[in-house]
Fold these 2 entries.
Entry 1:
Amino acid sequence: MDQATNLRELMGKNREIRVISVASGKGGVGKSSISVNLAITMSKLGIRVLIIDADFGLANVDVMLGITTRLDLSYFLRGEKTIHEIIQQGHEGVRFISGGSGVNELINMNEDQLSELLSTIIHIDEPIDVIIMDAGAGVSNTIMQVLLASTETIVVTTGEPTSVLDAYALVKTIVKHDATHPLHVLANKCDKAIEAQNIQTGFVDVCGRHLGKNINPLGLISYNHNITASIKRQIPITVSDPHSLTSREIEVIARAILDMPSERESSGILSRVFSRVLGTKA
Ligand SMILES: Nc1ncnc2c1ncn2[C@@H]1O[C@H](COP(=O)(O)OP(=O)(O)OP(=O)(O)O)[C@@H](O)[C@H]1O
Ligand SMILES: [Mg+2]
């Protein structure tokens, strides 16, 4: 783990690119869908985003983006292509690097290869503001290295007790390696807002009390079967249905991560400024 910690220190706190990893304890909770839709939403907000499919060897972000590519990270590992040459263009100007599917070299990377790969990614010389890394599920050493190389991690959970418990195990493992690593929690596939609220406050509270770890609650994404339909069509929901509840929920989350005021807040500020100038009441 020292190598991963060194990577973070190497990056320095003052590096301007934010590297946001998306992780979960349990699989299938929505990491890849969230990574893709967050990236597209941030891009619409004017942020230059690169998605890295860091579920090495089991990658499927390209399928979700509807991108057909042979060029994955294995070309970089073999020295056949530079990291810049394997970048693809997706929707809304989002850039993307494929983690490869069923590629043995990527599945069986050794620690040095992984460190070199992560170091290249986080130091990438491209005009980008945010890197989103879709990590695999679980607490393996590879996943820990990916998470600790990022500047912050979004832990995704659903309301299922198994998913919440696994998310807690993940947080515990991260804290063990680096107690200062910034963490957010996001509740996905929620049936009711109150359920999401309970998951978040409960989770934040338990992590605070038992691990002494402050976690930032990011909000919720409701259960929406259209997300699955959009994956089948290979068009992310934020592209195919930008006004859907899911797209709006993702925008709230993107703005929270980027620390941007919501549209309502900013228009409130604007109308107050205008009314002051015009001498009317807001
Ligand atoms: N908010 C949601 N409502 C309904 N279905 C959802 C939602 N989010 C994701 N899904 C569905 O859940 C399934 C798993 O999603 P996804 O592949 O994004 O999860 P993952 O965490 O990346 O999985 P893995 O751990 O296998 O990488 C997909 O069928 C997706 O359509
Ligand atoms: Mg996934």
Note: The chain has one domain: 2-278.
Entry 2:
Amino acid sequence: MRLRPVPAAAAALLALVLAAPAGQAQTPAAAAPPPAPQAIKAVKPGLFMVTGGGGNTTVRVTSAGLIVVDGKNPGQTFYDDLMAQIRTVSPQPVKYLVVTHHHADHSGNTGRFLAAGAKVVAQRNLPAELDKFTPPANNPTLTAPARPDVTYAQTYTIGLGGKTVRLMHFAAAHTDADTIVYFPDLKAVSTGDELNAANPNFDYAGGASIAGWITSLDDTLKLDWDQAIPGHGAEPFTRAQVVAFRGKLATLLDRARAQVKASTPKDKLVASLKLDDLWPFPAGFWNAMRTDGLYAEAGGK
Ligand SMILES: [Zn+2]
């Protein structure tokens, strides 16, 4: 899904997922093709990423159990597939699940991890975002992901098996409940959807802020790491790739501010912006929620 063209069916699915109103589960329509199968790969010794089946999952192995970041799309099959992937690298129990934000493709199996005995940790704004959940029209019986049993405001440290993992909330960015997960001994971070190989998703209904996003990536870049596991995408980002992603966010916001300053009306804002050197935003991406949010963030009244 990185920078190569996606097949039409996959592009349609992506557009559908990204066009889903914030607060709703990002579940594809019944007729859409299933998401990519899950696959696990090593990022560092003792650190793995699982792609497919929703947002990326990160797995930190310690001698006393596993710390897992994000738990895939809601559903027993996605959970079972994830655990099967994890079992190929470790028989240890999952002691912690960190939920980077409330979107169901990351938080969908929180209840299953809780039932299996994991402690679930998220930023303190996350429960209020879950409260906004409404099931998608194509899956009306879907219920909101379960709440975490531990929340934190700005930082939270997990110690397990002699290893330290630090959770940080720097600013509202992709949502107002984002967590960045830092693995200091491995010089790696896991960012949830603050990094996305396809394009950033501005969930203004979930408290997003491009300005905050830039701040959060700047603060993340102050940490000592060389691999950043994104929320979506097959490969970790390098520092240079994160700097480039952050620069595109700043360019987008600068361009929007210039248009608002030039009195471009809201309904002409997106069409007025040069976007082709930033990301290939899918059809339907710039819905009213995102257009209204960008216009307001750029100073529009
Ligand atoms: Zn997300």
Note: Residues 1-30 have pLDDT under 50 and may be disordered.
